[in-house]
UniProtKB/TrEMBL annotation:
Pfam families: OB_ChsH2_C, zf-ChsH2. Residues 51-116 form the ChsH2 C-terminal OB-fold domain. InterPro entries: ChsH2_C (IPR002878), ChsH2_Znr (IPR022002), NA-bd_OB-fold (IPR012340), Thioester_dehydratase-like (IPR052513). This is Benzoylsuccinyl-CoA thiolase. Residues 17-49 form the ChsH2 rubredoxin-like zinc ribbon domain.
Length: 134
């Protein structure tokens, strides 16, 4: 199983988790995970630990992509339009963009609850995706 991006998410059984970083000094959480200085401009913390992020959130915005993005993105041939959602994660409030699986753009609404899942990109590697909350 190949991940589209190493270190940004993990799949354990059926559960997909995004991996963020939390500052030990102020508790700020960010995604994607990073090292070094805390992203909070009012904090001088440098101790960031990788933490799994909440698996659910609410739609902040959404759209569909009816034209293939440019390279290096590998589009399916023929291109199949994809739905994209920006989802505000529960508890931490970070907005994370992802492809939507199993829902069309007509079915999405701002504020709708979605749950993290995964699926393959057109060229094979797995990536996190947003799906209907169970
Ligand atoms: Zn901090």
């Amino acid at each position: 199983m190949t991940y589209a991006i190493e270190g940004w998410f993990a799949i354990e059984g059926d559960a997909v988790r995004l991996l963020g970083a939390r500052c030990a000094a102020c508790g700020t959480v960010c995604f994607p995970p990073r090292r070094g200085l805390c992203p909070n401009p009012r904090c001088a913390g440098e101790d960031l630990e990788v933490v799994p992020l909440p698996r659910r959130g609410r739609v902040w915005s959404y759209t569909n992509a009816c034209y293939p993005p440019p390279a290096p993105y590998v589009a399916a041939r023929p291109y199949v339009p994809v739905t994209l959602a920006a989802v505000e994660l529960d508890e931490v409030g970070i907005v994370v963009l992802g492809q939507v699986k199993g829902l069309t753009v007509e079915e999405l609404q701002v504020g709708m609850e979605l749950e993290l899942t995964s699926g393959p990109l057109a060229d094979g590697p797995l990536v996190w995706m947003w799906g209907r909350a169970s």
